[in-house]
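User: Structure tokens for both sequences below?

Assistant:
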Amino acid sequence: MRSVSAYEGALRLAIHALKYSARPRLARRLGELWLQIPEPPFARERYTALIPVPMHRARLRERGFNHAELLARALSARIGVPVAAGVVRRVRATQPLYPLGPEERREAVAGAFRARLPGELQGRPLLLVDDIITTGATISTLAQALQEEGAGPIDAVSLARARRPGEDDPTR
């Protein structure tokens, strides 16, 4: 998992504006930030597809867009790897994760995703895309669902990574 920056300051405000102030056009500008990651994972290996973290259909109806998918499309435009948004579904609505601790997050997302990989993605390297990684519970659960369906190597990128107590560099 690699991230552009810590989840603080201007990046935190921009992510909040994207998600909670209905400003989906910010995704294109935010997506450009991935090119600033030192040794970005997409420079080391060519991925077959970008997989954005899916939203449950109820939350998608509320918000009107999936911010992770918009970010994945912005990254796709920069690196030329297609977005495969429909291969994973969030089959169970989860409570907002931001107030939860690590164990509660893992429990909240357990079994929340179902994957159905088409043949051209079987055994192929995939890159998961999300806005924020806090404990890694969502990304790990999503990766597990994809691996159970035959995915190859899986990496993940996020715009921001929550800083853990005592951590110097949350981006690695």
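Moving on to the next sequence.
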Amino acid sequence: MIFETREEAGRVLARDLKDKVFPEEKPIVLAIPRGGIPVAYSIAKELRIPMSVVVVRKLGLPWNEEAGFGAIDPDGSTYLDEDLISYAKLDPRTVREIARRELEEIREREKKYMPEGYPDLRERTAIVVDDGVATGYTAMAAAGFAKKRGAGKVIVAVPVCPKDAHRRFSGRADEFLCHHASGEFSFAVGMFYRDFHQLTDEETLEYIRRAKEEGLFEP
């Protein structure tokens, strides 16, 4: 299963979500930036439901920031892989310092992407979207944030994931939807896209601008 672009992945995911979206539940798509934004934009456009952004950040190992040991949400709550923290011998002070730095980055990105603040999620169905999950901690953080903000139901929806991802999200979201669950030993989200370039802030803001012009963005 190979997607050409993140937008194509969003269109495919929209078909999977079609029977799970009910107007009376006031559904909203919450994109994890940056890669989740084109996916969410396509879903919002296909299903004619609003989208927004939830800024969460991966917590990376000091010697390899791409290797995440957890994530942090906009409230400063952390979602941690305790086994990896123990294996990597990370002390609590180091974990707190990394979390502090990433929370500062969240604040900067909120100013760029969400200057009006987060939408009201009370009693709504929140569909958390990214371009895929590997460890899944950023999606867990976004789902946890949506729950704290009062969402009636939280669905995590992604185009690709490892086969054990469903188990990881048990108890973290009301529903986990993955279009293609892969058994690849060395799983990486980018393996399933022909175009998986890192989005710039300019590209990200352009998607948000287009969604606003089309009446698809909250707030």
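User: Anything stand out in the second?

Assistant: Residues 92-113 form the longest helix (22 residues).
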